[in-house]
Amino acid sequence: MKQIVVISGKGGTGKTIIAAAFAALAKNKVMADCDVDAADLHLLLHPKIVEHHEFKSGKIAVIDEDKCIICGKCLAYCRFSAVVAFKNDDGSLKKIGIDPIACEGCAFRSFICPAEAIRMKENTSGEWFISETRFGPMVHAKLGIAEENSGKLVTLVRQKAKELAEKQNCHWVIIDGAPGIGCPVIASLSGVDFALVVTEPTLSGLHDADRVIKVARHFGVLVKLVINKYDLNIDMTEKIERYCRDNNIPLMGKIGFDESVVKAMVEGKTIIEYPDGKTKEETKKIWDSLLSI
Amino acid sequence: MVISVASGKGGTGKTTVAVNLALSLKNIQFLDCDVEEPNAHLFLKPTIQEKKPAFIPIPEIEEEKCNYCGRCAEVCAYNAIAVLPSSNNKKGEISKKGKILIFPHLCHGCGACSYLCPQKAIREVDREIGTIEIGNSGSIQFIHGSVNIGEALSPPLIRRVKEYINPTKTVIIDVPPGTSCPVVASVRESDYCILVTEPTPFGLNDLILAVEVLRKLNIPFGVIINRADLGNKKTDSYCLKENIPILMRIPFKKEIASAYSKGIPMVEVFPEYKKGFKDLFRNIEDKIKREEDRVGQ
Q: Using CA atoms, how far apart are residues A151 and A140, in angstroms rounded to an integer?
């Protein structure tokens, strides 16, 4: 069984379009959407939810107002500006509150509160699902609004997808990754067979692909690259091809700009299911070359 | 006044809007808070005057003071410290010294371990998480952060970048994509947020998530529809239904895409857009003022 992740550094280069196309092309696979804070793969695969679970992670501080003596010690020690002071007109402290969005759950204040008025409450910060799609099983998740710990939720989605793939003797786990190079991306890279970086022929596309490739290599992950919308700037495409040669990155293929990509998306279809897009053939070729590795 | 430019979905045109808005106005400070993948410098081409490392505090153990009691590991909410206690022989003498393991990448720098150590055996040392660069692009003051490769936590660096906010200027913040902690750290304390979207199912899905974030944070916002002639009309009807102002529409033009690909701001190719961005700014100023009047009453 092989695990591959589709990432890009820069957002909007076509990760999800390509991951969804692979869902239609690959035989015997489990799909995993690891862009847990702005997931889009479900809009093309239309999962029917079979299992639904809460994701509990981290804690947040809660003040027991009856016990609080309003001494203000917690105000001085919180480094995340999560303690809010309400003041009287003369400037003295009236009440202490907690900003649950700013709180990073460090529990420091609960240990130093002289009145033992602060306790840590378990936080439900999202949900995750096992679903069925027309292309087979899919594991996906939704991080709560403005929540933390997206890396842990990604790790959980990956673990469930892998278990499912092993149980059903699947050949592939195909992971749709998040943009950026931070914790959700790092979590989606660990232990994969390779990362497929999707970029576009723009200065920012190359700049951001270079950063995410460095992150992948930092963690010892093999990298391959695809140039999407390559015909929007042929000079830049050539520059990216040179970059691949100079850095020993296999270029798996190029996909042209094609308005049928948006049309397929509007209809909720993968590009493979959409008639007469040139993208379809180019993506098929990329998948075939990935198969032959 | 602080205006942040965010989106939910990546690649919808945040940096394009932020950069071109900055180039159309006067007395601007530009902060690129997309510290994982900063791009604004590719368009503004700032002259950098100062480059500074950014740190978070992490614990360092003074082994000679430590008695391996395990309190630090117990109070750490992020599992960044593990303590193997000393083992004793039958006479109660230490037969094997304990050991402390610190995992710097898990540490959030809250300071609980050093404060609560009964032996005062922990001091805090700086760990570099990225760099901040300060410079200018014409009359625009430019600041951006860039996290080091392999670094998982970007909010501490985003907070460092925001420490440079100059309240006497119009501050424009380029926000990372998504809806989780880096976005929250970037948009907090903004007076207004511009959400840039594209009229596609992905764009709309992620716009709705971004709207929920801003409502939770109580920040007023409006929408710019980029590549407005692609996709479908559902973004329009969503905004209408939710009473969200559509501030501007930018059509899909190959010339804009081509300039973008080379790092050329669109107002350089289509100077007529400067007026559009100026009007956009005045419109936002009015909205903020009306909001202040409403709250003040």
A: 13
